[in-house]
Write a structure and sequence with these properties.
The chain is of the alpha/beta class and 194 residues long. It is built from eight helices and five strands, in the order E-H-E-H-E-H-H-E-E-H-H-H-H. Strand 4 and strand 5 form a beta hairpin.
């Protein structure tokens, strides 16, 4: 019995798969794998590995876009080889490709080249934007945690009664969350510090 097996993936847990699920309509929910997490050229994608292990001859692997299925041209060759060896067809964005057919293989690889090109452009723009932000002093990076002595001073300033949480945060150039954590650490270490 030939079946359609779906695969959708997002780089981040917060991203939504709604648009991708729309393309996967017609694929049974229990025959669809959703992958969150790895980005870039990382090939370690357990959800995709499960799908590739589940497909059988005559099945169709359905994915919304080439860049959701593969991350690079070498990655496409691995996936393509796996599909050909299993006798599985491929549907990307609603268009069917036969990976064993020279034309289907060419179209799949061409789509992959464009997807990889798009990722490279995005990466280049991101680095360019970060360089400009760094030059303008807008890219600060992760703030360092205060030392034990600085935490004690934060707590002292807060307990003096003359400051709200925002006061010591501004005075020591840290976030309000950092002041709350410092208060909590001192309280946990000493009991109630009021």
């Amino acid at each position: 019995m030939n079946e359609s097996i779906g695969y959708a993936g997002c780089s981040l847990d917060e991203q939504d798969l709604t648009a991708q699920r729309g393309i996967l309509l017609g694929v049974a929910e229990d025959r669809t794998s959703h992958q969150y997490g790895p980005t870039g050229t990382n090939r370690d994608r357990p959800g995709l590995d499960q799908v590739l292990a589940a497909v059988r001859a005559g099945d169709t692997l359905v994915a919304p876009e080439p860049d959701r299925l593969v991350r690079s041209v070498p990655d496409a060759r691995v996936v393509d080889g796996s599909l050909v060896s299993c006798g599985v067809e491929l549907s990307l964005g609603g268009t069917h490709y036969d990976p064993a057919d020279p034309m289907g293989k060419t179209f799949f690889n061409t789509l992959t080249i464009f997807a990889e090109f798009e990722m490279d452009l995005l990466r280049m723009r991101t680095h360019g934007g970060m360089a400009v932000a760094g030059a303008e002093g807008k890219l600060k990076g992760r703030q360092l945690e205060p030392t034990t002595r600085q935490r004690a001073n934060l707590v002292k300033e807060h307990h003096s009664g003359g400051h709200t949480i925002a006061g010591p945060a501004e005075l020591f150039s840290v976030s309000r969350a950092t002041v709350y954590r410092a208060l909590e650490r001192i309280q946990n270490a000493n009991g109630d510090v009021r």
